Amino acid sequence: MSTVIVARHARTPAERFKDAAWVAFVALLLGIPMVGLTTVDQGGALAVTTRFGMLAMFVGASFAGRFVFRWIMDQFRNRRAAKGRELKVDRTPVAIKAIGWVVLGAAVAMPIAFSDNRYVIDTATTVLIYVMLGWGLNVVVGLAGLLDLGYVAFYAVGAYTYALLFSHFGWTFWEALPVAGAAAATFGIVLGYPTLRLRGDYLAIVTLGFGEIIRVILVNWTELSNGPNGIGSIPRPTLFGLPFERSPAEGTQSFASFFGIEFSGMHRIIFLYYLILVLALLTNVFVSRLRKLPVGRAWEALREDEIACKAMGMNVTNVKLSAFTIGAMLGGFAGVFFAARQGFISPESFTFTESATILAIVVLGGMGSQLGVVLAALVLVLLPELGRNFSEYRMLMFGTAMVLIMVWRPGGLLSSREPTIRLNQAGANKAAAIGGQA
Amino acid sequence: MAYALQQLINGLSLGAVYGLIAIGYTMVYGIIGMINFAHGDIFMVSAFIAVTAFTLLAALGVTSLPLALIAVLITAIFFTSAYGWAVERMAYRPLRGSTRLAPLISAIGMSIFLQNMVQLTQGARVKPIPPVIEGGIELWQTADFTVQVSWTQIMIVLVTIVLMVAFTYLITQTAFGRQQRACEQDSTMTALLGINVDRTISATFMLGAALAAVAGVMVTVYYGVVDFFIGFVAGIKAFTAAVLGGIGSLPGAMLGGLIIGLIESFWAAYLSPEYKDVATFAILILVLMFRPSGLLGRPEVEKV
Questions:
Q1: Is the Cα dihedral A255, A261, A266, A270 positive or negative?
Q2: Which of A59, A164, A187, B294 has a CA-to-CA distance to A41 between 20 and 30 Å?
C-alpha cells in the first residue's frame, strides 16, 4: 500500500514551539489516566491518589524533548539542504564481508580476553543462541517471506525432546541433538501442511496459535512434561565424552584430568560458548549454501512473487514446506543447546514474547541479511542487559528501542545485503555453471 | 439442559466482548492491511482507566448507576482514543510505505511498552473493584440448577448490538465510511482525490480504540478485576476471532467473536478448562484449512 507522503516539518522557532506544544498536549491526555492518577489499595478497597507533580514532569519532558529533537533534526536538514543532496554511500558487499570477518574474529577471541569474567561469557552465549535462532527463522521469514509468529514452538520441541530423551532413556546431548532436530522438523511439516493455502496475516495467526497450543500442552500435560514445574537436572554436553566436572564418575576422566590441568568452573562456560558458536556458524554456512542452491533461490522467488512462481510451474507447496522444515530443524538444534546450557526447562521460556523477540531480530537486522541478524541480536540482548541498573525500566526501554530502531531504519540495520547472484561477467559465468548443474 | 443454557448465555456475553475488540482489528486491517498488534494493550489500558474512573466516582459519591456508567464510558473512550491515535502516529505513520513487517515490529514494541508502562505506573497487582451492577433475572429453575442472566450480561449484549448497528451504519452509509473504504481500495488514488488519508487512518485507529475502550469497561464491570496482562490474552483471542470471521469484515468479526466465546465456555464446561485455548486455535486452523479467507471473508483477488 503506497501513500503520497508529503514531508512536513517545523522550520521556524514558532513552528517548532507549536509542534512541541501539540506533543505536550497529547502527552497530557495520555498521562492523566496513567501517570497522573492511580489507584492504591486502602484497607481492602481501592482509593485514587493523584501524582500531579509526576504528570507535570512527564508533560514538561515531552515538550522539551520534542522541541530539542525537532531543533536537532532541522539542523541536520538545513545542513543537508545547504550541501545539496548527497549520494548515499553504497556499502559494498566487500565491506560487509570484512565486517563479518571482524565480528567472527572478535567472537572467537572473546572468551580468551574475558576468560575470568563469567557474566560476559554467559551474556555472549545468550547472544549466540539468539543469533542461531535468528538465522534459523531467517530461512522462513527472511528468505521465503513466510511470516511465522510461533517459531518458539520448534525451539521448545527441541529443548523438550532432549529433556525427555534424557530423563526416560538417559540419552546424552550428542545423541539427542540429531533426533531433536528431526522432531522439530517433523513439527515443521505438521504445522506447514495445513498452512500452505494461507497467506500473510492468516499464516501469522495460525503460527501464533500453533506456538500457543504447544505451550498450553506443555503446561497442562503434566505426565509428559511435568507441567509448569519443568524438567530439571538435564546434563551438560561433553567434549567427546569428557565431562566438565570436578570429580568424574569411577573409571572415567573429566576434561581437567584428561588434559592434566587444574579444574575450573570456567572451562564449562567457555566450552558452551564455543559449542554454540560452532553450531551457529554451521547454521550460517548451511543457510548460505542453501541460498545458492535451487531451493534457496526458489524461496527468494516465492518471497518476491508467489503468483509468478506458480505461473513458472514451481511447486509452491514443496518450497514452502522445505523452508518451514529447515527453519524448524535449526530452531530445534538451538532448543537442545538451550536445554543443555540451562540444565532446566519449563514452558515459561517459550512464550510469545520470545517468538516476537526472535522475529524482531530478523526484521531489525534486515530481512535475509546474515550479518544483520548478528547486529540485531547484539542490540536486543545487550539493551536489556545494559538496562539492569534501571531494572524496572528495562522492558520499557526495550519496547521503545524496538519502535525507534524500526522508525529510524525501516529496512533493518543492514538493509543492503549481499545479492545471491551477482550479474557481472564472472558472476554470470558462475551462474551459468550452477544453472547447468541444476 | 439448564446447564447448557447457562453456558450459552455466558458464552454469548464473552463472545460479545471478543467481538467488540475484534472489530478494532478488522477496521484497522481493512484500511491499512496490517494487524494492530498493540490493540489488545489498548483494551487493557481502557480497563485500567475504567477502574480509576469507577473508584473516583465512588469517592465523589456518585450513586446513580446509569450516570456513573455513562461517565466512565465517556472517560474511557476519550482517553483510550488518544492512546489509539498515539499508537498510529508513533508506530505506523512513520513507517507508511515501507515493508509490511516493519510496522508489525514497531507495533510489537509499542505493545511491550504499553504493558510495562501500565505495570510501572499502576502496579503489577490485580485491581479489584466492588460489583457495579448486581443481580439478574432467573430464567429457569430446575431441581438442582438455576439458569441466570445477570444484568451485566444483558448490558454487554445490548451495548454490543447497539454498537454493531452504529458501526455498520457508519461504514456503509456515511461520508467517513466512504472515505475509509476508498482508502482501503487505493490510498494513493484517494489522496489524489483530495481526501486526507492520514486523517482517515488516524480516525480509524481512534474508532477501533474507542470500541476497545467500551470492551474494557464491560470486562471491568463483568469480572470486577483487572491486571496488566489481560491485554495479551484478550488481544490474541480477539485477533483469532477477526481472522476466523474473515479479517476486514465487520459482521465477520462479530461472528468470530461469538463462535470463540461459545467454544470457550462450552469446552471449559464440558471437556477441560485447561485446554480451551488449544480448542480455540485448533478450530481456527481447521476453518482456515477449508476456508482460507475466513468464514465471511471475501476470497482475495490475485493481482498479477
A1: negative
A2: A59
* Residue A261: partners with Cβ closer than 8 Å, 6 or more residues away: none
Distance from CA of B31 to the nearest CA of A (A): 10
Average pLDDT over residues B88-97: 88
One-letter amino acid for residue A46 of the chain: L
CB-CB under 8 Å, A400 with B113: yes
Chain A: give the shortest CA distance to residue B146, in Å: 31
Among A301, A324, A320, CA closest to A311: A301
CA distance A349 to chain B (A): 17
C-alpha separations of B160 from A89, A347, B22, B74, B249 in Å: 55, 36, 12, 16, 16
Measured between alpha carbons, how far is A155 from A213 in angstroms, rounded to an integer?
14
Per the CB < 8 Å rule, is A39 touching B127?
yes
Q: pLDDT (tens digit, 9 = 90+) per residue, B251-260? A: 899 999 999 9
- Report how far residue B160's alpha carbon sits from residue B240's, in angstroms, rounded to the nearest whole number: 18
Q: How many residues does chain A have?
A: 438
Distance of CA A137 to the CA centre of its chain: 8
A with B: how many residue pairs have Cβ under 8 Å apart?
204
Half-sphere exposure of B9 (CA within 13 A, CB side): 21
Q: What Cα–Cα distance (Å) separates residue B45 from each residue in A25, A54, A262, B130?
A: 19, 19, 57, 19
Q: Is the pLDDT of residue A84 over 70?
A: no
Residue position matching grid coordinates 473512550: B77
Cell 491515535: give the residue. B85
CA distance A310 to A316: 7
CA atoms of B94 and B192, how far apart (whole Å): 20
Is the CB of A200 inside 8 Å of chain B's CB atoms?
yes
pLDDT at residue B144 greater than cutoff 80: no
CA atoms of B32 and B38, how far apart (whole Å): 15
What count of other Cβ atoms lies within 10 Å of the Cβ of residue A390? 10
Inter-chain touch B278–A217, beta carbons under 8 Å = yes
In the block, residue with C-alpha cell 534486515: A366
Q: Which three cell numbers stand for residue A87?
A: 549520494
| Contact at CB, A411 and B304, closer than 8 angstroms | no
Cα-based distances in Å from A13 to A36, A68, A73: 30, 11, 13
- Residues of B in Cβ contact (< 8 Å) with A141: 101
Task: Please indicate if any CB of chain B lies within 8 Å of the CB of A241.
Answer: no
Q: What does each C-alpha distance from A174 to A164, A377, B201, B291, B298 come to in angstroms?
A: 14, 26, 54, 43, 50
CA B115 to chain centre: 17
- A114 in contact with B at a CB cutoff of 8 Å? no
Residues of A in contact with B239 (CB under 8 A): 205
Which has the higher per-residue pLDDT, A5 or A425?
Answer: A425
Lowest mean pLDDT among A88-92, A134-138, A376-380: A88-92
Which residue in B48, B52, B96 has the most chain A C-beta atoms within 10 A of its own C-beta, making it the best mutation to test that interface?
A: B52
Q: Are B241 and B19 in contact (CB under 8 A)?
A: yes
Query: Chain B residues with CB inside 8 Å of A217's CB?
Result: 275, 278
CA distance B144 to chain A (A): 31
The arithmetic mean of pLDDT across residues A86-107, rounded, is 71
Tell me the C-alpha distance between A61 and A31, whole Å.
12
The C-alpha cell 448490538 sits at B161
Q: Is A176 on the interface with B (CB under 8 A)?
A: no
Within 10 angstroms of residue A163's Cβ, the number of other Cβ atoms is 28
- Residue B185 — very low, low, confident or very high, per pLDDT cuts 50/70/90? confident
Contacts of A155 (CB under 8 A, 6+ apart): A133, A184, A331, A332, A334, A335, A338, A350, A354
Tell me how far apart the terminal alpha carbons of chain A are, to the nearest angstrom: 37
Q: Which cell is A311 given?
A: 505461473
